[in-house]
Amino acid sequence: MADDAAGTTQPQGLKAGAIGFLDALVIGLNSTSPAYSLAAVIGPVVALVGIHAPGVMLASFVPMLLIASAFFYLNRVDQDCGTTFSWVTRAMGPWSGWLGGWAIAMTGVLVIGSLADVAVGFALLAVGLDSWAENAVVRQLLAVVVILVMTAVCVIGTELSARLQDVLILAQVFFLLVFAVVALYRVYAGTGSLDAVEPAIGWLDPFGAGGAALTGGLLLGVFMYWGWESAVNLTEEVEDSATAPGKAGIWSTVVLLVTYLSVGFAVVAYAGPAFLAENADEEEAIFGVLAHEVMGGWDWVVLLAVSTSALASTQTTIIPASRTALSMARRKALPAPLAHIHPRFRTPDVSTWWVAGIAIVWYLVVNRISENALFDSLTALSLLIAFYYALTGLACVVYYRRHLTESVSNFLLIGVGPLAGALLLAWLLVESVADMADPENSYSGVSWFGLGPPLVIGLVITLIGVLFMCFWRLRRGAFWTERRGVADPELVRRKESRDVDRPGV
What we know:
disordered C terminus, 19 helices, disordered N terminus, mainly alpha, Amino acid/polyamine transporter I
């Protein structure tokens, strides 16, 4: 606690113990936006691997679980809302840590507008306002309103955010479960309207479609699972902050696996691989078509599932970007105003509004170029995601390197697992760069400087980050004097202060 000029006491730091393990788990799940992720990815995955789509979803789970283990063990020694930024700084130095933090912040900027757009579009379709959904001006205006409202919820308080997320995840899971049960029932009853195929255990073989197809499917799978670590970004605000956020991250990946496999089997079985492959370029619209085919007049159930999924993720995606910016500013790696904590709500209000503002500008500007350009910017996400996940896995091994031989569990869970996850994601990153270099592999199919637009967007964002990092190093070099293995001193001071206030804890 600190006294201001008027002699009143002002709270310092984020609000500790604001939410519990289940709230963190729900936020991790909603950040991944399972219904939206399925809607966006199921078609392209089936186009690549056919009936082995569930197997690719299973294979994609492996690196996510391994990296989740790294998040768990790193959070045990450093409960910093900056997660990757703070951990990589401790393990590998400030330069690598800064770039990891930049990658997290930029993923939020790239995707928030698109999520709000999907939430609005599917909600309008669910209530029969198809003409509004097709009107770009109306849809974009409503999307901006959604971003502003979700940002306000994030600023008002973590507890309010958690309560809203609880409602949205219940609605989402219920809608998806109804869809999967009805679809599978109609497959076995023979009442489907498409070329249904009965599910088989062999669909879980990810290698059935060949190596090249598997690589492409895994790249899409990275996007499907991305976002679960938002639970760990709330570590300073979660009860039992040393272990609960990390456990929430691990369990969210497991819940996502079960959800994806269930709905994946249902979708492939009901529609058949031929239909999904033919309509792969329709993206999330496939779910709209299948909703009507499976549910008939109740298709609004699935449309609302996708809408609530994207709406929830619009809010939760703001969390890692804003908390990372807060952590970086707190350690003088970014301008100091971004470290401001709202005196009443105890949330990072300045960084949260900045993330939302930049995301809105990006969404509107890219939409002015073309809708395909917006899709290309989302494809560029895989570069940033694979980068900072791989960096986190490597940081775990480096930080714990002297403890890996103390036990078999340390060797496997802290060493081999995170390293294997990092290497696999690094390989996917290289494959992704090679794939995105070909303009034909982009949504727009056009060439930017002889390369695909997604790769250009990813490279430009990286270049901007490097230039700003060098500028800030010259302007304010305090962060770059930090020694490896040292946690955020301000965070440690606050934790010690809380321990003094609560003797015996």
